[in-house]
Amino acid sequence: MDLWRICSSPDMTDDDMLAMIGCLVEAVLPGAKWMTTDVTHPYTVGGRQIDVLHDGRWLELAECGRIHPGVLREAGLDPEQWSGLALGMGLERALMLRKGIPDIRYLRADNPRIANQMLDLEPWRHVSPLPAIRRDISVVLSAVEDEETLGDKIRTTLGDDAKVIESVDILSHTTHESLPQSARTCLGTQAGQVNVLLRIVLRPVDRTLTSDEANVIRNTIYQAVHDGPVLELI
Questions:
Q1: CA–CA dist 24, 227 (Å, integer)
Q2: Average pLDDT in the 43-56 region?
């Protein structure tokens, strides 16, 4: 991204440039410490490199300087009457610093778990490259249960094992009254209950789960949330 600030007077100074740098850093990395070092550009006078302190290291964010008189002349502006500031910043670097993204390749990844994180400025959430294991379970719940209470119950039940859960999604939600009689009998539902199909995706960040381990977690979740008389364990 190039930023050119043009002023209809010849007296734009280094103080103006430092003020612009401060605004830029605060917008990209609120509260970050920054410093400048002298650099040479063919299009500026008094060029500066802008470095920010990030995770204990000084990293380059952008470069800037006062617009060179020759550039103003080429643009048809008399340097005796005009002045300005020029700044260049890599948007990829800025985004990686803002979100804490560890690898530039993530910026163009197609994986929805990665691509969806590029839609906001929330901190980067680690995405495991290991394969996921999926388990779908049909459970009977109280009609007052929702995704939030269900998620809390699952996390509490699993304890430390909760970190292997990537997601729990409700695929379908059917009230007792809407179920056919054969399904009511099979599930043992009663008035005030619902049949919910849950999809559980398990993906640890440091290893691959075995099928037996996934089944144990699946059964633990099933027994924690299922409120019907018929159990389907594996």
A1: 55
A2: 94
Q: Quote the pLDDT of residue 65.
A: 96
Q: What is the pTM of this model?
A: 0.59
Contact between 177 and 190 under an 8 Å Cβ cutoff? The reply is no
- The structural domains of the chain, with segments of one domain joined by +, span 2-89, 133-225
* Integer Cα distance of 233 and 229 in angstroms: 13
pLDDT-based confidence at 40, cuts 50/70/90?
A: very high
Three-state SS at 32: coil
Q: 85-111: string of b/e by CB count within 10 Å (b at 16+)?
A: bbbebeeebbbbbbbebeeeebeeeee
Taking the C-alpha atoms of residue 191 and residue 128, their distance in angstroms, rounded to an integer, is 42
DSSP state of 102: S
Per-residue pLDDT tens digits for 65-86: 999 999 999 999 999 999 999 9
- Could you say which of 1.10.150.750, 3.30.70.380, 2.70.70.10, 1.10.10.10 is the CATH number of the domain covering 133-225? 3.30.70.380
Structure tokens at 216: 């144990």
Mean pLDDT of 54-60: 91
CA–CA distance, 234 with 216 (Å, rounded to integer): 8
CATH 3.30.200.20 assigned to domain 2-89? The reply is no
